[in-house]
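hey so u asked for the seq, here:
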Amino acid sequence: METQTRKSILFGGLILLIGISIGWLISPSEPNVAEDGHDHGVEALADQLWTCSMHPQIKLNEPGDCPICGMDLIPLVSGNRSGSSNPMVHEMTAEAIAMANIQTSIVGGMSSDGELLLTGKIEADERQNASVTAKFPGRIEKLFVSFTGEKVKAGQKLATVYSPELMTAQKELAEAAKTKSVFPELYQAALEKLRLWKLTEAQISSIENSGNTITAFDILASHSGIVTQRNIAVGDYVNTGTVLFNVVDLDKIWVMLDAYESDLPLVAVGNPISFTAAGIPGQTFTAKVTYIDPIINPTTRAASLRAELANPNGKLLPEMFVSAKVKTNSKGQNTAIAIPRTALLWSGKRSIVYVKVPNAEYPSYEMREITIGSKIGEMYSVEAGLEAGEEIVTNGVFAIDAASQLAGGYSMMNRPENKTVEVSTIFQSQLTQLTEEYFKVKNSLVSDDALATQKAAATLQSNLSKVDMSLVEGPGHDKWMAIRSEIQKAAGLITKESEIANQRRHFSPLSQAFLNLTETFGLTKDKVYKEYCPMAFDNKGAYWLSESEEIRNPYFGKSMLACGEVTKTYLKGQTVLDFADTKPAINSGEHQH
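ran it, structure tokens below
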């Protein structure tokens, strides 16, 4: 009976244990929630997730290849850490940039201050190259320079050679010396044979006076420099003329820059150059153009510019990439801009590039539509959308686009609609002339001149009729008529006002109309700016269009002339995308007062 009771207790305990185990297994686990209410365990895991740009359902805890398509996995990121208001900007971590092998380069062309922006690399001065050759046949017995990159000086011993032919020539000299008074021609011939093999007079005199045969001869460096190539090893047999070493003196180097044929009329021998090297950050070097290649490369359609530079410390090394500015005499003249094929994401004639955001807190890249032209070798000309001096992604552009798409941002496959309507250049030119009259109104307000503002607004109103509305059809015509009505109304109200404060109140809708005009149809000016003053109209804020990047506030004039910020730059021919800005996008630094 006692045994049966014990068995019942054990059986019951076993049932209870099994029940607890099953309950624990099927019950939902509690998330790892910290005191602040955030699931830090999930956040930490998200930071370590890697996904595939083509198969976003793949999420792994370490980098590698996609198990479906085999593509490299990319880091899964979420959102912008700096809270950038520009929806076209995507931020990446330094680790993600390294894994995706993101590389950038400066876009060449002419800057606004007359500097031609070119790229190139450092090369050794060809005149400083020298080859150390074998002057006589023989076998290499010893090497005193055993690796490339070693520095040598002129006269330094490089190798020792055993030469049976040279031993024979020594014996000939010894015999000829005995009978030189009788047969001087034979004596001179024996001497000349050794001289042709580049033996020094001291070596020849030693051979003649001692009567001993030298079995090993030293090969000496004829130039100082760096050994760039060693072509022999101990035991090798060399013939007369065999190149043993290549030596280059890097105390002087060449800077070789690629200039497109459209750039060549702007440069001349003697133009100053300033450049930076990627391997030497924070240091700028100067030189002058010393040579322009007279032949254009048929593949790249570029010619080489050469500058010579002293390099006493050896900082500048061959094959270093450089970015250079060449001073020209043609200030502000436009030149062709070309970018490599690897920088493009294809979308018909209008394609996508990623532009590195300057002075960003975190590495950031802006997706931008550009208009490309003809293909030149591995380069494409850019008709609109990029400026000389901007920095674009040239390697890893697909990785950035895929990461932006996975993070819920805009990408090549998910872009906003275009706000810009394609119209004729004639219509754009007429709108640009009208905008110039708007700038006169704006500048009169900047100068606090109410009378000049009235006159400028009246001229603007009268010139409105000079825009030929028949040049634009369809939806574009309707948009122009709506903008035209806004300009007519705002300019008319400014004309009627003699008080500058009231003129400024009506200037705000006039500016909004011209901003709308610029974004919808575009201008033929190379660049105009959308600027913003947050303190206008009792801190409600107001925008205006400016022909200059420098802030000159029309809402306050001289009392707060520099108050404001540039929120957008409109480039000639650049498409404006149709999405609402949540707040001003500051592209040029902090707000000014």
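The radius of gyration is 38 Å. Residues 2-26 form the longest helix (25 residues).
lmk if thats what u needed
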